[in-house]
Design a protein that fits this description.
The protein contains eleven helices and eight strands. Helix 1 packs across helix 10. By secondary structure, the chain is of the alpha/beta class. 52% of the residues are buried. It has an eight-stranded mixed beta sheet with strand order 1-2-4-3-5-6-7-8, sandwiched between helices. The protein has one domain: 3-Layer(aba) Sandwich (Rossmann fold).
Length: 368
């Protein structure tokens, strides 16, 4: 774009939105999926919980991983907390794998436990603007008392356990996620093509090396649990470059990965207007995600890659209402491109009840 995609004003607005003051947490757990079950796997991070929903037809060939955002909780995956997408995928005869935890991890193998010179700040340093209480998650020890190893977990420990204990296929899987989980999904498909043939990014940060992005992400990690981005990967390091979808686009092309790339317009839906946070935080966060995603689209198009579906709705901010709508539109595409390859012209089996379900209105607090 003329003058560079990352206008300082846009980045500044997003940075302000991600500051620890007034950060909006997601709603408390309501009704979780009654068909989901806990699946624990040992790893270097300890015993890690994953939630599993079996495909309606009982197959073990079609598998999709759902990745959370920066505010991932330690009890349930956000897709189960906030949406009906796991149930909709199961109706499409897809097995659903939902890793639990990994706040601010980007699902990466970090360089070191998160700290600031060996110290982690007290949550009470940053009281909430609204309640006076400490910022949620700053007393979290995940990734601080040990090193995050999420890429290793998802592509080795969990992968092997799903195959050996549940009989799930460990090839031609799908993976998609929101925000930081969107960029992670593309990374897994780029570097682990033997496992993932399909990747989707919903409001992902797909040009992480763009001007101002590391500073914005630094404050995002501070806001979501008090994490230090330098403990994940040093600025300008090979690891940081490896994490940037804009930089590894050629690997996705070489793998012929089927992609679903989406971001909202940053224009709020009517339902969003009742929430000040959806406007103050959700709009600038989605504007940054949209700019990143459009830059990534331009890169793919310049390289002549067309094994991709783009989804840019005319409304949508950085929240679960937007992502649920997008994910529902993605379901037929993902159903066609995972598992054993279909014969030419064949279509996947229809949903178990003839409809995807999970069609919820836009809205809900912003997340990142």
């Amino acid at each position: 774009m003329r003058g560079g995609w990352a206008k300082r004003g846009l980045v500044g607005a997003a940075v302000a939105a991600m500051l620890p003051f007034g950060v909006v947490a997601g709603p408390a757990v309501a009704d979780t999926n009654p068909n989901a079950f806990d699946f624990y796997v040992d790893s270097s991070m300890g015993s890690v919980k994953t939630r599993i929903v079996r495909a309606a037809d009982g197959n073990t060939d079609r598998v999709v991983y759902l990745l959370d955002g920066e505010r991932a909780q330690n009890d349930y995956n956000g897709w189960e907390i906030h949406t009906e997408i796991p149930a909709a995928l199961a109706k499409f005869n897809i097995n659903v794998v939902m890793p639990v935890g990994g706040e601010s991890s980007f699902y990466q193998d970090w360089d070191a436990p998160s700290s600031f010179g060996g110290v982690n700040p007290d949550a009470n340093l940053f009281p909430s603007r609204d309640s006076g209480s400490a910022v949620a998650g700053w007393d979290e020890t995940s990734g601080k008392s040990y090193v995050y190893r999420w890429e290793s977990f998802l592509t080795h420990d969990l992968r092997d356990a799903l195959r050996n204990r549940l009989g799930f296929s460990d090839s031609r899987n799908g993976v998609f996620g929101l925000s930081s989980g969107g960029s992670a999904s593309l990374l897994f498909a780029a570097y682990h093509p033997d496992q993932f043939s399909y990747a989707g990014s919903l409001s992902g940060y797909l040009y992480m090396s763009a001007p101002g992005m590391r500073d914005a992400l630094r404050l995002a990690l501070l806001a979501a649990g008090g994490y230090n981005i330098d403990s994940m990967a040093a600025a300008g390091s090979a690891k940081w470059q490896r994490m940037d979808p804009y930089g590894f686009a050629d690997k996705l092309i070489a793998n012929n990965t089927r992609l679903y790339i989406a971001a909202g317009s940053a224009v709020p839906a009517q339902q969003d207007l009742s929430s000040a946070d959806a406007v103050i935080q959700g709009m600038p966060l989605e504007a940054i995600a949209l700019a990143n995603t459009k830059a990534f689209q331009s890169k793919l198009q310049a390289l002549g890659y067309d094994n991709v579906s783009y989804d840019f709705p005319s409304i949508g901010v950085h929240n679960w209402g937007n992502w649920e709508q997008v994910a529902n539109r993605m379901l037929p595409d993902i159903a066609q491109h995972i598992g054993k390859p279909l014969p030419p012209g064949a279509q996947p089996a229809p949903p178990a009840d003839g409809a995807p379900g999970g069609m919820q209105p836009p809205g809900a607090p912003p997340q990142n």
